[in-house]
Every structure is written in structure tokens, then in C-alpha cells.
Amino acid sequence: MQKSYSRLLGVIGKPNTGKSTFFSAATLALAEIANYPFTTIKPNRGIGYVRTPCVHPEFEVQDNPRNSMCTDNTRLIPVELIDVAGLVPGAWEGRGLGNQFLDEIRRADALIHVVDASGGTDCEGRVCKPGEHDPLEDVKFLEREIVMWMTNILKKDWSKISRTVDADKKGIYSLLEDRFSGLGIKRSHVSEATRKAGLNPDKVTAWSETDFGKFVEMLRRVAKPMLIVANKIDLPTAAANVERLRKLDYTVIPCSAEAELALRRAAEKQLIEYKPGDCSFKIAQANRLLPNQIRALEAIKERILEPNGTTGVQEAMNTAYFKLLNMIAVYPVEDLEHLSDHDGRVLPDTYLVPYGTTAHQFAYIIHTELGDSFLYAVDAREKRRIGEDAVLKDRDVISVVSTRKRA
Ligand SMILES: Nc1nc2c(ncn2[C@@H]2O[C@H](COP(=O)(O)OP(=O)(O)OP(=O)(O)O)[C@@H](O)[C@H]2O)c(=O)[nH]1
Ligand SMILES: [Mg+2]
Description:
single chain; alpha/beta; 7-stranded mixed beta sheet; 37% helix; flat; disordered N terminus; binds magnesium ion
């Protein structure tokens, strides 16, 4: 169960943009929401979902999920997210709740930057006239905060690190991996950042100040990939800003976290039929709704769902997993004929694994023993054997054959 949500998404941004609203909508966990900065002080952690079309209709079987849910042919796979305190300029130096915030996103594998696209909150999160603040500034400021935070950590003993790299050939990758391990930065991130910045990893002492800056900027992009949630699109001043945000080098998802929260709460009470990420909903029990509640729901349909497709919350979760983190969904089964586990549960689990995962690595993800005793795997769709190096694809159904029978 735990393995399918082994990645962590961090919901970040300046105060009062709707981070906790987004978090609550995504997880249905209770989080304090209010129209002033620093409502959230202690981080909220919860479980949200990514959605993917389930494979069971294609295989013409009735499934019986265990680590995920299946409704209307859609698999909802649990993933973990964290909502943190708002960040203000200078946080890297300790302003606001600065370092504490940065400390909490250390473990996040990808970041969801919630921006107030309506421009109704200033750079410190105080309410201002809608349209008065430019949300593009918030994007620049957040990038800078993360870069400064990383720079600060790295600069501390950079000269020592660079001399060691040049002298003993231990390599920058393992040295920096050690230095950054607390930030969830891996060797592969360091090597990718060095390559993409066009720098020589064997001659680190020759890196100029500009090279160093390029390296840290690249490391931020590679190790903490980020998307922008352009929130509060229900307000009229948001539309023009969404278009401007789209010109930046990010995936931008227009969003109304407040609308999604209302829909999910209504669905939870079975007042409406709605799945996270659906483009519409049906009123199920009109007699239990007050006229103003019906009007509010209709307004969400007309103003958010019809023009935008969705409220954006689920799309952000999916984009973070499938695009930023490049994950795929794979279904492990033991019994190929019934597509079941040893208890006869059909298509019990869906694992989210990084694209590039091989059949053998997948066996290790399921169970160390299964990896150790791996013989070959079978692709249930193609009904053919695949070798240990075969790279898995999204929505593969895979059976691992090993020398040992699993308990
Ligand atoms: N119009 C509109 N308001 C929203 C939306 N999402 C959140 N809000 C409002 O924005 C205000 C701040 O929401 P929070 O979720 O507390 O924001 P936060 O970013 O967690 O704030 P801090 O914890 O203080 O950093 C509240 O008044 C919310 O109701 C939205 O989609 N549309
Ligand atoms: Mg909050």
C-alpha cells in the first residue's frame, strides 16, 4: 500500500493564495482556511489521488482494488501531499516563517505553486484590490527563494567541496549527493543539472560565479520540478493573468480550489454525483439542497466547468505525477489467467513508478524477494514474456515469474 504513494507533492506559495483550500479539496482533510496571511503555521499532510483510466474494461473483468479505488472505470491512486505555511520574500534569510517552511518542503519531489491569479493579494499575502498585484512577480520571487535557499546550503563549504572534487576524483556527484541528501536531491539530479548547465564535472574549481549560479538554477528545476496552479479563476480579474502566466516556462493550470472543495464536499454527502477531475456533475438529491446551494452549484458549472473543462485541482495532481515526475501506472498480478493476486483479487493494485522502470526493477518494487528471485515477467496484454531489461509502459499489467513462490 505504502509504495504507490512514495512521492511527495508540496503545495507552496505566498500566504493567502488558496494553498490550504487546494489541499483540502484534494484530500478532503480538514485544514484551516481564512482570508488573511499565515493561517497555516504547522504543515498539513494528507492523501490525495491521481486518476487514470482503469484497465479492467479493456480486459473485460470485474476488478477488486486494494491499494486504490475504481469508480466508473477510473482508478484513483493515493498519493501524499503537504500544505505548508506561506512564504514571503526573504524567507531564505528567515523572514516570515521562512526557514521552517523551506525545511518542510525538503522532502517534496515536486512542487505545486499556488498563485492567486486574480491579483487580489499583495506580495506578502495581504488582501488588495483584485487585479492590483501582478502574479508573475510571485513566480519570480518563489524561484529566487528556492535558489537562494539552495545556494546558502551549498555555498557554506563550496571551496572545500570543489577542491576535493578536483583532487581526489571522488566526483562531484557523490559529494553533492551527500551535501544535499537532506533536501531529497539525488545523484541523478546533480548529474543532470551539471550536464544541462553545460559544466565540466571534473574541474569544479574552474567554475565561475556565473557557472555556480547556473548550476543551482538547473538543480532547482531538475530536483524540485514545479507547476503553477493559477487559482481563483472564479474572479473576473484572473483570466488575463492566466494568459500572461502561460507565457512563462511552466505548465499552468487554471484552477478554482474553492469550487472543487464545494463539489467534493457535496459529493461526499452524496448530494451530487461527481468524481475528482470530472468535467461535470449531476445533482443527486435536489430535495436535500437549499435553493441558494443549487444556484451556487449551477454557477460552478457555468463559470468554471463549462469554460475550463475542470476545476483544475485534479488536473494539477495528475500533471505533477504524470508530467513533472514522469510516472506511469502499472498493475502487478500473480495469476495471469484471472489477473488476480494469490487471494483471487482481480487487478488489486496500481503502482506509480517512474518511466524507465524495467521489469526487474518493478519486481524489486513489489517485494525485495521477488526481485532477488526474478526469472522473467509476462505482459498480460500482449501475453508474452518480457526480459528483465524490458521497460514498462503506462497501464501495463505485469506478472512476475520467480524461482520462489511468494508467501
Ligand atoms: N475566489 C476564490 N477564493 C479562494 C479560492 N481558493 C481559496 N480562496 C480564498 O482565499 C483565502 C485564503 O485561502 P487559504 O486556503 O487559507 O490560503 P493559504 O494559501 O493556505 O493561506 P496561508 O495558510 O495563510 O498561507 C480564503 O479566503 C479562501 O476562501 C478560489 O478558488 N477562489
Ligand atoms: Mg494555508
